[in-house]
Design a protein that fits this description.
alpha/beta, Rossmann fold, 6-stranded mixed beta sheet, 10 helices, 38% helix, globular, binds adenosine-5'-triphosphate, binds magnesium ion, ATP-binding, nucleotide-binding, branched-chain amino acid transmembrane transporter activity
């Protein structure tokens, strides 16, 4: 057994003293695609923001590659190799596709290296190459989401955290998005995925955690969660 790349141990966090995460523990192994699923307000985004260093846990710990990162500020967490793609895209809307990508590598000074990364991403997302000089706000929703993921990969993360990539996409595009995420994972990037689209997420994930009001209520191999009566009743309307 290899050691997990990310180990979240019993973290508590909240907003202005109001707790919303009540002791979450999870592990991610190198190369895995892990999904956190749950309804609105379950605490999925808060969990990711805490891992990313945007919120501080009031208790518990987060280890990445064996190092305690629980108290590190977000830019240091990014430097360690964790890239967080937040909900709602947050692109630089007036900048072009290429400019958005360049800004995703702001920690890297070597221009040659940055160019190499862009070319690599263009192979993975050909649609972005064809729209290289188009400003981000004129891209379709699906293209913007691709750009958000690609920008998140410009820092060459060891762990990519994707928050609700399916949001606002029509079903056919959700499927395409999921295929893209699988492809990114197969290219060697460990992924933590957060989704309200429970079925779609569990269909592509290796393992999953079901979050309910700040607690993990079920976890395990994705296929057993897909079979779980509790999960099917609560999230798939079956
Ligand atoms: N900035 C904030 N200030 C106060 N409370 C917040 C804030 N952000 C989130 N919360 C609360 O924390 C809880 C968890 O929210 P969170 O955004 O983590 O859920 P989520 O699972 O990502 O939901 P969604 O699927 O709607 O994105 C909710 O009760 C929410 O109201
Ligand atoms: Mg959220």
């Amino acid at each position: 057994m290899t050691d997990p790349i990310l180990k979240v141990d019993n973290i508590l966090t909240g907003y202005d003293g109001v707790p919303v995460i009540h002791g979450i523990s999870l592990d991610i192994n190198p190369g895995e695609l892990v999904a956190i699923v749950g309804a609105n307000g379950a605490g999925k985004t808060s969990t990711m923001r805490t891992i990313a260093g945007l919120m501080k846990p009031t208790a518990g710990s987060i280890h990445f590659n064996g190092e305690d990162i629980s108290r590190l500020p977000a830019h240091m967490v990014l430097r360690r190799g964790i890239s967080y793609v937040p909900e709602g895209r947050r692109l630089f809307s007036k900048l072009t596709v290429r400019e958005n990508l360049v800004l995703g590598a702001y920690m890297e000074k070597d221009k040659h290296e940055i160019e190499g990364r862009i070319e690599e991403l263009y192979r993975l997302f050909p649609v972005l190459e064809s729209r290289s000089s188009q400003v981000a706000e004129t891209l379709s929703g699906g293209e913007q989401q691709m750009l958000a993921i690609a920008r998140g990969m410009m820092s060459k993360p060891r762990l990519l955290m994707l928050d609700e990539m399916s949001l606002g996409l029509m079903p056919a595009l959700v499927e395409k998005m999921m295929d893209t995420i699988v492809q990114v994972n197969r290219n060697g990037v460990t992924i933590l995925l957060v989704e309200q689209m429970v079925q779609e997420a569990l269909e592509i994930a290796h393992r999953g955690y079901v979050l309910q009001t700040g607690r993990i209520v079920e976890s395990g191999p994705a296929e057993s969660l897909l079979d779980s009566e509790q999960v099917r009743k609560a999230y798939m309307g079956m």
